[in-house]
């Protein structure tokens, strides 16, 4: 089939590279907002403050709860973020169903409130149409474990799916091994990032985020190179993707250690994203558990999709050229992200 339509294959490979290279330049930008609500001069007036990344800036105003109207607005820049301040007044005291609909396209946000002497905080899931803030829910007290679990499970899934660098690393694993060897590598990656996520989230380990993000990008380039070597020789750290080459077991053990080490670095990135969601002190343990489960669920869905896609491509004899094209693109992206991130924290 390849010999009959080489031009079509070339166009297909170029399209794949174009799609991969069209990934966001900042591979793991988690656009997190910070929202604060406080009482104003009386029980029916409020001050709402929003801090959002410049990438999510919008000229539109929030949509206030029914029976409320805006009475003031301010806007100013603070570093790479824009801070908005709004005053609004309602014809009623805060009710359980009152919601503010924000206009900013965010991946998630933290929300803190101090209304009528009740302090509360929670994380919020994002979306392209903005974030709905249940300001009335701040008066309802502690949330159920089901509500907490669902919220952080979704946050975990969204973070892995929107983290191009994490997906690129997992894609490399899918190209390096198959079958039980692939399951073992993905498990090693999971062990690594679950451990560092837990330690960093509870501040038992503290490392500066920018250098870690640069090394995460480097890990993609290293794994992409290994996948390309195995593609060309069907031989790599594990003696081949099925682990049947000479010295397969020692090499595979070495490969497992490398993947665990890189997983530790990726987990630090996950911890940074979870911390930006403003998790309440009382919810830290369930938030960590279900955020991590969400990351694993999203990761498994991606691995299953890639495995199925590669199996389908093998049927039409396109798997090997597609693997070469995708790993070349992933390696180039990893190098680009690394240089971009190093330049970013050197200029800071």
From TrEMBL:
Residues 1-27 form the signal peptide. Keywords: Membrane, Signal, Transmembrane, Transmembrane helix. The chain crosses the membrane at residues 182-202, 256-275, 287-313. It holds the Pfam family HupE_UreJ_2. This is HupE/UreJ family protein. It comes from Sphingobium jiangsuense.
